[in-house]
Amino acid sequence: METQPTVAVTAQGRRTRDTIVDAAAELMYVNGVSGTSVDKVLAASGAGKSQMYHYFKNKDQLVEAVIGRYLEKILGNQPAIRELASWPDFDRWAEQILTLHRGPSGPIACPLGNIAGELGDDPRVRALLDRAYLEWESHLVNGLNTLRDNGSLRPDADPARLAQAAMACLQGGLLLGHIRNDITPIEDSLRIAVGHLRSYAI
């Protein structure tokens, strides 16, 4: 059985663990997982090797934590996704994503997409990424279920399939937008995604 990561139980421990994960997340975003060694993470975080291996027994556990951190940041940049209760809320969610990518550093690559491109053939990493994407989609599913409950979504609509389709559109737009340094693929993908969802409106 694989050893589970050690949970930080003190405030200082949580800060140390968070510093390690944040440093690894930044390095892996820029250099990829294969280009990010444990020594580089230690240097960037200022943590000692004993601290690293106290919380993460191996690099795989660190990658898992980084995927979780990426998801936290993604959802934090689109807070409307947690409050989807009307069709205008879905428009607001799309606009929050566009606002991020219209910034001075945008369009930016999806960090989950980066790892998928590098390690998506690894069954363990693929499962971790799928779990992250499903959690992201789950907020869309919850919003669509709310719309169906209040009579704004067709009863025969499948919220999980609709959320999956919206995510597929968005991910394609994020990939092309970053590669081409052009916001229009993201704008178009979100317009298509939200338009598809709204086609099931009552």
Describe the structure.
It comes from Amycolatopsis saalfeldensis. InterPro entries: Homeodomain-like_sf, HTH_TetR, Tet_transcr_reg_TetR-rel_C_sf, TetR_C. This is DNA-binding transcriptional regulator, AcrR family. Keywords: DNA-binding, Transcription, Transcription regulation. The protein is mostly helical. The chain has two domains: about 50 residues, Arc Repressor Mutant, subunit A (Orthogonal Bundle), CATH 1.10.10; about 140 residues, Tetracycline Repressor, domain 2 (Orthogonal Bundle). The chain contains nine helices and no strands. The longest helix is centred in the last third of the chain and has 27 residues. The model has no long low-confidence stretch (mean pLDDT about 95).
